[in-house]
Amino acid sequence: MNERPPALEMRGITKRFPGVLANDDITFDVRAGEIHALLGENGAGKTTLMNILYGLVSPDTGEVLVDGTPVTIRDPSNAIAQGIGMVHQHFMLVPVLTVAENVILGQELLRGPFLDLPQAARRIRELATQLGFDVDPDVRIEQLPVGQQQRVEILKAIYRGARILVLDEPTAVLTPQETVEVFTVLRRLQADGAAIVFISHKLEEVLAIADRITVIRRGKVVGTRRPSETSDVDLAVMMVGREVLLRVDRGKSHPGDVVLKTEGLRVKDDRGHEAVRGVDLEVRAGEILGIAGVAGNGQDELVDALVGLRRPAGGKVLLGGAEITGAPTRRIRDLGVAHVPGDRQRFGLVLPYPVEDNLVLTSFDEPPFATGPLNLLRNDAAIDEWSERLIKEFDIRTPSRDVRAATLSGGNQQKIIVAREFRGANRLVILDQPTRGLDVGSIEFIHRRAIEKRDAGTAILLTSADLDEVLELSDRIAVMFRGHIVAIFDAAVAERDRIGLLMAKGGAAAA
Amino acid sequence: MIVVDFVVYLFTVLPDLLPIILGLATPLALGALCGVINERAGVVNIGIEGIMLWSAFNGYLAGFALHDTIGAGPSLALGIATAVLTGAVLGLLHAWLTVTVRADQIIAGTMMNIAAFGITGYLNRLIITPSGRGGAGVLGVLHLPPEVIGLPAVGPIIRMFFEQGPIAMSVVFFVIAIQLLLFRSRWGLRTRAVGEHPKAADTLGIDVFKQRYLNVVLGCAFAGLAGAYLTLESTGSFQNGMTGGRGFIALAAMIFGRWTPVGAFLGALMFGTATALGVVVNIRVPEGDLGQILKSIPTFWYAALPYLVTIVILAGVVGRSIPPAADGVPYEKEGRA
Ligand SMILES: Nc1ncnc2c1ncn2[C@@H]1O[C@H](COP(=O)(O)OP(=O)(O)OP(=O)(O)O)[C@@H](O)[C@H]1O
Ligand SMILES: [Mg+2]
User: Fold this and answer.
1) Structural contact between residues A286 and A458, judged by C-beta atoms closer than 8 angstroms
2) For chains A and B, what is the number of CB pairs under 8 angstroms?
3) Do B205 and A88 count as a contact with CB atoms less than 8 A apart?
4) What digits encode the pLDDT tens for the residues A192-205?
5) Widest CA span of chain B, in angstroms?
6) For A81, which residue in chain B has the nearest alpha carbon?
């Protein structure tokens, strides 16, 4: 054999967390100049495997080989020394530091006792040019859109001389346009001989970019395929272990009365700029209204205003005809509005709390979860029973109901929120990016649930940066551009290209 | 009218006011530096008060014990070294409790304060009071030539910064040095990263625990120096509980200064000014109505002035200032979020 050993090989990796076998004898390799995709359900163990590679988690058994030589990786500095770089599922950037500071952190360029930031900036510009993008080294991370933060993460790895690059769901938070840009960067790195591990839940992405695809399920490798010899339906079956409907049948909607109505709604963003500039919307009982739009066109502010997290600067919000403009969140919720927030870790969950507490976060103070005089006591039995039921019903993969929500995989964290918010009879459910980072099985599940909810007569407002999701789920589609609703289509006549164009350019209405 | 009188009065007493401000601000500024260096790395330290007190005592004890054997100069120098070392060692204890054991940081700090108060009070009664001997002496003030002091306008300002003892004079140097290091050096970058997003720092191979240990120990050495100032430069003696809340005012100065050394120093100067004013008003009572009014205010109000300013500041008059994101949060490996 004159073939070179793979750039990276992981053999027989096993890792057990309390109550979960996260990795079960996983063997996996990547060659130089290859993009190897890892697929698997939420909680399948992808991140764990990569964290082991990067020295963030220590395996119970198994070994790692770089260029055919066994290496010991105890912490990230060992991994970096071996030329391994990682773009983490949740960004590892310090928001208040600049791009340059984030990139050089840990491998600082010095002049005398001080940081040589000008030289760092030059290096960063150089590297970015090589990779085919532009970045300003002197802006603070918190001022950058996620797409650019993503590139800074890649830069960080390349700056450290990474030849083995792991990207854990790099596209989950990106717009289609940004995804295309990241792919260009990855192809360039691949051409330079980097070995790339690419994790994603989006099957078409994986099929488009990977040379090989390995699927894991419940900690075990199910199989490895080449894109040419498989299909999205195939991969979905491998991942979930059953047939998955990649497109849920929406059926016919039977819209009833108007539940939510906004009139000339104006909302300001954190910096005081008007992000929503006079929006008129109607959502009826028993219909799903989807808002399509590139992230940052006012959807976040619109949703915030509807649920009372942000005071509108003008206009009206009406729920079932009664005005709720600027009402406190609590009151809006009591009126039957549920909300699945876009940023699950910040707004949807209390991460250090147990799963069961997160499941009753919006109802812990009412019977049956509260009992006794003035509902001051906690009814543990009711909470236990309720959370067990939701965990089963929503297939939340957790070792038990009392582990901290923070230890669950990203997708399972999302399921906690969906389970909580979909409970009971709501008048209006607001779904903000409800399936970001979720596996195909969970997406199918949530989509089905949303349609059931609709058919039960609930009004549903959906926002998503994923146009396909909006197209699949919505009965009517509104396109949002720079704070305006520039068009509303009936789903039956909506054309993908037309909407894509409106999302990007706004069309005549915004002129 | 009265207000105008008061402003005029302030200007007339300025030459008396300025030279004492820096001295009064010194323990506050050093304590605030301790706070900045600790909290920027993500460790809350409300035990500064206790560390200051304990260091003041140990420094004094060393100076006091060695004074007759090796003379005033060397004993004072060793006294300072002892105080600084005491601060560092107590810092090591705080770091162990907060970083390794992951104890509640407020409780660890409170424990420090209670322990310092009790132990120094006890040892003071046991060793120093019965000996009946003289103290450890005081660090001298730099004497400026009269031509310099007499300079119009700039004279009092020069006196403010240079007619001082060595510790007070060193404060300005330390403040500038730490400001530069915090924002321009490798140590500073890592400190800020560890205090804002320790996990991100960890993924880049930075040892979060080591960095936090280093910062807590270093910061507390400054609190030790503040203690040395109290016994060896300012009063020349030790009294029980002599820090009198300065460790807490230092924290207020730190918050006022938005966790920057220079800002915290300005905060300390402001508290120093409030204290100095309370002193000067009683010594140089102004004429006329203003004097009547100022005299009619009970003296304890003047003594309370810096504390009142602290309350006002902490109540958020200066606007919400945002602490480092991971301030007070112990770091756990293999944990999420
Ligand atoms: N630090 C931890 N403590 C306890 N359990 C953990 C920890 N990290 C991961 N787990 C568990 O290990 C399993 C695998 O999680 P992992 O994050 O690797 O999944 P994943 O495949 O990356 O999922 P996702 O697609 O949702 O990101 C999950 O059941 C998770 O709850
Ligand atoms: Mg993951």
Assistant:
1) yes
2) 80
3) no
4) 999 999 999 889 89
5) 70
6) B205
